[in-house]
Design brief:
Elements: H1 16-20, H2 25-28, H3 35-39, E1 46-49, H4 55-66, E2 71-77, H5 81-89, H6 96-116, H7 119-126, H8 132-159, E3 170-176, H9 180-185, H10 188-195, E4 206-212, H11 217-231, E5 236-242, H12 252-274, E6 281-287, H13 288-291, H14 301-308, E7 309-311, H15 318-332, H16 343-350, H17 362-368, H18 374-387, H19 396-418, H20 424-437, E8 441-442, H21 444-453, H22 464-474, E9 477-482, E10 496-499, E11 514-517
Parallel strand pairs: 1-6, 1-7, 2-5, 5-6
Antiparallel strand pairs: 3-4, 8-11, 9-10, 9-11
């Protein structure tokens, strides 16, 4: 491996959608944590985790592996719901009740459009059998399926006809003669002709005008459901909806209510589909911090979450994250037989060993500078590879040289994560507070006193306690305390224990212990 260099490896992208487009995506996907197998369970339809934990990648792998034959899987983002609201309701400004009802319609419509655009793939599946008996059975099943498919197609086209114009108004006019004296004087032929409106006659005539209009979305939703269930007797269909937190609403409370309603609706839809087809379901990708807000707002939602949720939490098993990264490295380099090496050997080859007691290897420092998310590690390693593509190993010096770039990317990521609950002004005030205070480790009383003295500089921060607890939940700050038990006589520096909300900390920040700024953001905020 004398000719090995870091540019030989590519372990993924920060953006899961980009990674899923790579030719070796399936080879790089890590399955040993059993999350993929969980997603195959008929009752599991929620994939949760913080941003960067791999929700999109898991969903894309599920789609890539299963999207064949009679199993159709479609991936989309919830931000498209606004477009559908405009198409179907001529408005994106809906009251809450209508918007909640619209969710069920949107899911059903998504299933319909997924079925309609995959006719060719399904036909190829039915006729994949080579022997005569198989071909005959396939023909029978395909004829049955194509019948229900056409019914669904015709229904959809009634609502969304092709062409440049929509029907503004459809009218059918029937002329009904109700004057009995005139009616008696006409022959049967004349009566028929008169009703068709082509004969002139004397007498009173009442005209009934019937105006036909498209059924509202709730009525259409029921029709869609009926036809979808017919199709599911012959094929399996799953849809994946991502970026649920990106939907535009007037406030956070409304967003949480909207998402609780969506999860409840999807659960109901999935249970209905399950009676016909155990593989078919709608899968939702949700941030774990949003799910944590559900419990206090809905009594019933927690039961659904408990039965349906797959949580991506890489620090529940300390070796899980390490094994996943080593697996990706071994599979990404195909020229040096790394795929045959166990994770510990890969770690020894790629990451420099340390001579101090703080870190065993440079990989352990990368872990320290992460929030326990695959995206963090991939981002940091990519920063190093970009700066040192020809190096044979990731050294501590390389990590230090790349730290500023990495830190800025992490801060930008955190700001994006905070934007779901806070305004841009609030976010900037919080970042400025940490930057201006400038200390990496401090006491609760110290930062409180600083804030109270300079509160005029941070007008968008109402309560410092609320902000500190929020930063703790995100992992931006944690607690530290002196480790008195494991301190060694030969150790010159004190040894500290750090606790974080995402790893080994309690549910809330401990105000009695030291408060510490996360290592990953210090460079970007000029904190020493």
């Amino acid at each position: 491996m004398n000719d090995f260099k870091l540019s030989n490896i590519k372990i993924g992208y920060a953006d899961g959608e980009k990674e899923a487009e790579e030719d070796n995506f399936s080879d790089l996907f890590y399955t040993d944590n059993n999350k993929y197998n969980e997603l195959l369970s008929k009752y599991k339809f929620i994939v949760s985790g913080r941003k960067g934990t791999g929700k999109t990648i898991l969903a894309k792998y599920y789609q890539k592996i299963n999207n064949n034959g009679s199993f159709i899987i479609d991936y989309s983002k919830l931000d498209k719901i606004s477009l559908h609201q405009f198409i179907d309701l001529d408005s994106i400004n809906l009251n809450n009740d209508i918007r909640f009802l619209f969710h069920e319609y949107y899911i059903h419509k998504h299933f319909v459009e997924t079925i309609l655009k995959n006719k060719k793939n399904i036909k190829e599946y039915f006729f994949a059998e080579k022997n005569n008996v198989g071909c005959f059975k396939a023909l029978v099943n395909f004829k049955k399926y194509i019948k229900v498919y056409r019914n669904l197609y015709n229904l959809y086209k009634e609502y969304y006809p092709d062409g440049s114009f929509n029907d503004k108004e459809k009218k059918t006019i029937q002329k009904i003669i109700e004057n009995s004296s005139v009616d008696a004087e006409l022959s049967s032929t004349e009566k028929l002709t008169a009703k068709l409106g082509t004969t002139t006659f004397n007498g009173n005539e009442n005209v009934l005008e019937i105006v036909k209009e498209k059924k509202n979305f709730a009525e259409r939703s029921e029709q869609y459901k009926k036809h979808i269930l017919e199709c599911l007797k012959y094929i399996s269909v799953s849809i994946i909806i991502d970026d649920l937190d990106e939907i535009k609403t007037e406030d956070t409370e409304h967003l949480i209510s909207l998402l609780i309603n969506l999860v409840t609706k999807v659960n109901d839809i999935n249970m209905t589909f399950l009676k016909v087809n155990s593989k078919s379901k709608c899968i939702l990708l949700l941030r774990s911090d949003i799910i944590n807000l559900f419990a206090s707002r809905s009594a019933n939602i927690q039961k659904i979450i408990s039965d349906s949720n797959i949580e991506l939490d890489w620090f529940k098993n300390d070796e899980e994250l390490e094994n996943m990264i080593m697996y990706k490295i071994s599979k990404s380099d195909t020229t040096h037989n790394m795929s045959k090496q166990p994770p510990k050997i890969i770690k020894k080859i790629i990451f420099e060993k340390s001579n101090n007691n703080l870190f065993n290897t440079s990989f352990d420092k990368i872990i320290r500078f992460s929030f326990g998310r695959p995206r963090d590690l991939i981002t940091y390693i990519d920063c190093v590879i970009e700066q040192y593509p020809n190096a044979p190993q990731i050294s501590f010096k390389m990590l230090k040289d790349s730290e500023q770039t990495y830190s800025q990317k992490i801060v930008n990521e955190i700001k994006n994560e905070m934007s779901i609950q806070l305004s841009s002004e609030e976010i900037e005030d919080i970042m400025n507070l940490l930057r201006n205070y400038g200390k990496a480790i401090f006491k609760y009383d110290e930062i409180t006193e600083y804030f109270n003295t300079h509160s005029n500089l941070y007008k968008n921060i109402e309560n410092i306690n609320t902000v500190l607890q929020y930063l703790y939940q995100l992992g931006i700050i944690g607690n530290s305390r002196l480790d008195t038990q494991k301190r060694r006589e030969t150790q010159k520096k004190r040894r500290y224990i750090y606790t974080w909300s995402y790893r080994n900390g309690g549910p809330t920040l401990n105000m009695d212990w030291d408060i510490v700024i996360h290592f990953s953001i210090r460079k970007a905020l000029n904190i020493v």
